[in-house]
Amino acid sequence: MKNTPSDFGLTMTPHMVTIDWHEANGWGDIHLQKYHDLSLAPHSQCFHYAQGVFEGLKAFRQANNDAALFRAYDHARRFQSSCERLAIPVLGEDVFVDALLTLLKADLQYLPDIREGTLYFRPFIIATEPSLGFYGRAKSFKFIVIACPMSNYFSSTNAINIMVESNYSRSAKGGTGAVKAIGNYAGTILSQQQAKEQNYHQVLWLDANHNKYIEELSSSNIFFVYKDKVITPRLSGSILPGITRDTTISLIQQNNFTVEESSIELQQLINDWYNGDLLEVFVTGTTAGITSVKKIDYLQHSLNFEQYLTAQTLAQKLSDIQISKTQNNQSWLTNLNCHKK
Q1: Modified residue N6-(pyridoxal phosphate)lysine is at which positions (predicted)?
Q2: Considering the domain boundaries, does residue 32 fall inside one?
Q3: 252 and 167 assigned to the same domain
C-alpha cells in the first residue's frame, strides 16, 4: 500500500455512518449505511456559510489482531470544541466514539495488517438546512463518518521540504484557527499550491499580527530540537491543539527530556540554525504522524537538516503504543472488542 498526499482519501470503505440533527427533535440515532453520494439542495447552508467542522483520526491493527482507535475521546472533545465555536449542536463523546466503532466493525476487513497501514476516519458535520438566510445557527445538520485505508502520508520521502509563507496568514487570534472548521483550509490552498509548484511539501505559517512568530503548517504542528530541549509554538488561540502534538509532548516528557511551549520568532530560529544550535525539526499530525523536516526556506535563507534521530525515535515509540507492542499509555486506545457503552 502506497499513499501520497495527492492520492490520500480517494478510495473509501463501503460503509458510512450518519446521524441527523433537527431543531425540533435534536440528535437522532446512529445509522450504518452503504457509502453513497449525498443529496442536498444547492441552497443548503453548508455550501454558502461554511457552517461545518471535521476531525481526523486512525484505527490500528493490534498485536493480538484486535483493532483500536487512537485517542478517540480526545478527538471527540476537540470535535465538541469545534462545534461550540461555530454554533453547531454538540454531539456527545460516547455517541461520537460509538459512531466510529460502528463503522470500524462494519469495515474491519479494510484495516491494513499491523505496520502496513491504518484505517483513517473522517467524522464531520455540515449544516443541511436549505436556506440562504443568514440568521444564526442552521435548523438542521448531518453528522457523517467515512473511512479510508492509508499508509504513510509522505510515503515518497523520509523528510519534507517546507516553504515559509510571508504574504498571507492562516488565522488570527480570536478567529477559528484553534478549531477544525472546514473553512480554515480553503484559505491555505493558494499558498499550498504555490509551494507544490516549487517542490515543497508543506507551508509554514507565521502569526497574523506581526508576521514573525511561527505558528504551524497547513495540516501539522511543528517542533524544533536543540541540544538540551525541544521547543514548539505555544497554543495562542490561532493554533490548532493537535492530538498528535499533545501525544508527542507527553512522549518527550516521559523520556525525561525538556519540552518548551513558547513564542518562537522566525529570525531567532534562523540565527540558531546559523549558530549550529538548532539541530533538528519535525512535524506532527494525524495524517503526517511524526515526520522529519529536511529543509525550511524563507526569502534568501535555506535551513537544511540532516539529523532525524529524535523524530525517528519518537515515531517508533508512538507506533509501538498504537499497536500495543508496549503497554505504556494504553488509556489512549479504544479497542473494538473491549469497548463497552
Answers
A1: 180
A2: yes
A3: yes
Q: Are residues 118 and 227 in the same domain?
A: no
Match 460502528 to its residue by C-alpha cell. Answer: 102
Q: Grid coordinates in use for 180?
A: 477544525
Whether the Cβ atoms of residue 293 and residue 302 lie closer than 8 Å to each other: no
Q: How far apart are CA 43 and CA 131, in angstroms?
A: 6
Helix (H, G, I), strand (E, B), or coil: what is residue 314? helix
Sequence-ordered list of residues with C-beta below 8 angstroms from that of 330, at least 6 positions apart, any chain = 321, 324
SS3 content of the chain, % helix, strand, coil (to 5): 25, 30, 45
Question: What residues of the chain score a pLDDT lower than 50?
Answer: 1-5, 156, 341
Nearest one of 277, 34, 303 to 146, comparing CA atoms: 34
Are residues 144 and 166 part of one domain? no
| DSSP for residue 288 | T
Question: Which long-range contacts does 245-248 make (Cβ < 8 Å, 24+ apart)?
Answer: 245/221, 245/284, 245/285, 246/74, 247/71, 247/284, 247/318, 247/332, 248/223, 248/284, 248/290, 248/314, 248/318
Eight-state DSSP code of residue 108: G
User: Do 164 and 285 have their domain in common?
Assistant: yes
pLDDT digits (tens, 9 = 90+) for 118-176: 999 999 999 999 999 998 999 999 999 999 999 865 554 579 999 999 999 999 989 99
Question: Are 201 and 97 found together in one domain?
Answer: no
Residue 208 domain-assigned?
yes
The answer to whether residues 169 and 144 belong to one domain is no
Instruction: Tell me the three state secondary structure of residue 301.
Output: strand
Torsion angle of C-alpha atoms 241, 144, 48, 203, degrees rounded to 10: 40
Q: Which three cell numbers stand for residue 169?
A: 496568514
- The residue range of the domain holding 248 is 159-307
* pLDDT of 2: 45
| 197-206 burial code (b ≥16 CB/10 A, e <16) | eeebbbbbbb
**Residue 60 pLDDT:** 95
